[in-house]
Design brief:
The protein is globular. The chain starts with 14 loop residues before the first strand and ends in a 9-residue tail after the last helix. It is 41% helix and 14% strand. With 254 residues, the chain is an alpha/beta fold. Helix 4 links the parallel strand 3 and strand 4. Helix 1 packs across helix 2, helix 2 packs parallel to helix 3 and helix 3 runs parallel beside helix 4. It has a single domain, classed as 3-Layer(aba) Sandwich (Undecaprenyl pyrophosphate synthetase). Strands 3-4-2-1-5-6 form a 6-stranded parallel β-sheet, sandwiched between helices. The structure holds farnesyl diphosphate. Farnesyl diphosphate (FPP) binds next to helix 1, helix 2, strand 2 and helix 3.
Length: 254
């Protein structure tokens, strides 16, 4: 069984993004309904958040609800929202105690009022924490985020606050919902699907991608360590040669 002692603390990603997939299939395989899979998925969320904090990961982004997920059957959407509210309500105190700071990215205003209230309270409660930043993507999609950023940037240009010549990658990044976070170096998707599904497309330009057949409700700390061990064996070249990597370069985060 993989263990944290096998990890090289000097080569940990600062930011891990996870597409939590397979709750429905996991439940179906056990003769249960999809919502049961989501409930069990929360146990994995809890374990992976604690494990990430213990290992020393600074940022953990979880794709909890996509813009496209609004199209699921009404009962499933309602169950997911209720689960979210109950989980945040139950876990906020533990997050605070464990040094976890909660952030939300996505179309916040499209969430039900009770969700917004619970999330806002938990974000306020944990605002002083800095051990692990837990970023929940809710009602999120990259295309929504990027077009929204472009619109807000265009408005600032129109208002004379930003000059056209000042627009570059760095400036554009400040209009994204992730403006305060570094880019993820590792993206994990569970459940054997090989897609990015509209998640952090801009931010994942140089991320290492890791796919596992394990369904999300079965994904636990040893699986996270396995993904990290795999990551630590890779050479991240950012488009350069191996030889060039031995010299300092502005694109490579120090
Ligand atoms: C994907 O499985 C999972 C989701 C769409 C929701 C993820 C939500 C949770 C784990 C619970 C709530 C989260 C928090 C942070 C409290 P799927 O339904 O797409 O599975 P399938 O592909 O097998 O159908």
């Amino acid at each position: 069984m993989p263990s944290t002692v096998q990890l090289d603390p000097a080569r940990l990603p600062r930011h891990i993004a996870i597409i939590m997939d397979g709750n429905g299939r996991w439940a179906k395989e056990r003769g249960k309904d999809r919502v049961y899979g989501h409930h069990e998925g929360v146990l994995s969320v809890r374990e992976i958040v604690n494990a990430a904090a213990e290992i020393g990961i600074e940022y953990l982004s979880l794709y909890a609800f996509s813009t496209e997920n609004w199209n699921r059957p009404k009962v499933e959407v309602a169950a997911l929202m209720e689960l979210l509210v109950n989980t945040i309500r139950k876990e906020a105190e533990a997050l605070k105690k464990n040094g976890v700071r909660l952030h939300v990215i996505g179309d916040f205003d499209s969430l039900p009022a009770v969700c917004r209230k619970e999330l806002r309270e938990a974000m306020d409660m944990t605002a002083g924490n800095s051990r692990l930043n837990l970023i929940l993507a809710l009602s999120y999609s990259s295309r929504w985020e990027i077009s929204n950023a472009a619109k807000r940037l265009a408005a600032d240009v129109q208002a004379g606050l930003v000059a056209l010549d000042d627009i570059d990658e760095k400036r554009f990044g400040t209009y994204l919902t992730t403006a305060d976070f570094p880019d993820p170096e590792l993206m994990i998707r569970t459940s054997g699907e090989y897609r990015i599904s509209n998640f952090l497309l801009y931010q994942m330009a140089y991320a290492e991608l890791y796919f596992t057949p394990v369904h999300w409700p079965s994904f636990r700390k040893p699986h996270l360590i396995e993904a990290l061990l795999d990551y630590q064996q890779r050479e991240r070249r950012f488009g350069m040669t191996s030889e060039q990597l031995r010299q300092p370069h502005p694109y490579i985060p120090s």
